[in-house]
Amino acid sequence: MERKSKKNLVLLLAPATIIYLIVFISPFILLLAQSFWTFQSSYVSTPGFSLENYKNVLSDPYYLGIYWRTARLSFVSTLITLILAYPLARLISRLPSGKKGFLTTLVALPMIGGAMIQTMGWMSVMMPYGAINGILLSLNIIDSKIPILGTEAGILIGLVQSFFPLMALPLITSLGAIDVTLEDAAKSLGATPMKTFFTIVLPLSIPGAISGVLLVFMANLTMYVTPSILGANKIQTFGTFVYQQAVPVGNWPFTSAYAILFLLMMGALAFVSSWLTKKIQRQIYLGE
Amino acid sequence: MKGKILRFLSLAVSGLILLYILLPILILIANSFNSSRFFEFPPTGFSLKWYQRFFQNKEYQNSLFVSIRIASIAALVGVLVGVPAAYAIKRYKFKGSNFLQAVFLSPLMIPSIVGALGLIQFLSMVRIGKMTLLGSLPGLILAHTVIILPYVIRMVITSLSYMDEDLEAAAQSLGAKPVRTFFEITLPLISPGIIMSAVFGFMVSFTDVVVTSFIGGAKFVTYPVRMYSEIRTEGLDPLAVAVSSVVVISIVIISLICEKTMQWSRFI
User: Fold this and answer.
1) Is A271 helix (H, G, I), strand (E, B) or coil?
2) Closest chain A C-alpha to B47 CA, distance in angstroms
3) Total domain count, chain A
4) Closest residue in B to A157 (Cα–Cα)
């Protein structure tokens, strides 16, 4: 590369690199360091190298239980999201581009509108006098009001809706990329719609489904607004617990260790799933 | 006949799923016209009084103003910093460009709550004079810029790859300098992508609760953080519902305009 264009390259990249170094990379290194420090009092800790924080997390069933509840809720919510998003994405992916864009925008709204607004809507639906209880009572499905706020079911209803776009958008893309003539060919050779779906559409949409599942699962793991409000402060998840320990309590060394362990588990999971994805894709495309 | 029934069933199921996705927004808007203080279902009467109160309420207006100010500055900085970076990564073939792209996009992989936990510790240590950056406007804007940047960089990279690179080569072979080529050829062609990334970045910043509630402190209470802390302490307030309806209706309108004019669903 000539010298002048090298200078240009540095000029183009410098501002972004500096901002990332200051606001993203340094805080992350500090987080890692802090996890080995010792807690003094709120917001104050002494530097050093101690594994005490990690031992604390790993030896207490309460802390481990929060990891477990978070993983369990995320798993269930991801599964429901996949089941609901697939048929809708399949329908949208086949529409002419104008309608497709319009419906894709509607589906993306929970993401664009932000978690807070969605959660406010859900809260009014789930309140004791809200729509869910009102409808169930008038249909005589229940005899008396049931609590929804503060239950895991309430959190799940909100979670699935909040992260729905992260599943639907990659699915719409990968289902839309399937060549229609492939399906027509299968049908003209006498395959039933069911068989065409299972031998052509489903296998070809697996990459989109996997990327959706990963995005939704990761987003669920770090949920914060939804469990905090729809859980009515009764149900702790990773996100709400980290906030409580970091801001009101101010025990940064412990919270850092708690977060680092969580990241390690997420990383391991991402590693295993990307290995699995490659294996599945090889099976689909090469028949190995 | 069987095909028709199946088609009807699949439309009905899809419609129900779509209704579920849009339910909180629809209910929120419906509730903002409810005359009662409580969120009874079915609603008891129609009224515009919560909207009238919003126009008299200085606190809500202030927090909306704080949010708009932070989101505008962050989106502007995000575009000024993100567009050159995306252009460098996409157009200059240099060693480590893939690695750098991965670094620039990595905040999308790292949960924002973990990022916020690092930031609260880091900003509390950076001092300018007597003040720490924690709870200051520059600190907040820097943090929001980093939330926005990965989206801006990703969207601009996408629109650069939709663009025909030969046009740049043609301009340069006719003697245009790289800077001129960028401003006269590249920039006009990718401007929809840039505008969209700014709008999207604005919304990401505007709706953020996690990072702001960690590092915003008491001085800069943005609108969603104000909603969040109010709901946690006092429950749902009809006035807050009316304000949020105004916000969500604006967001829906902006999204539909972006889709109509620039097909932004290709980018998100």
Assistant:
1) helix
2) 17
3) 1
4) B20
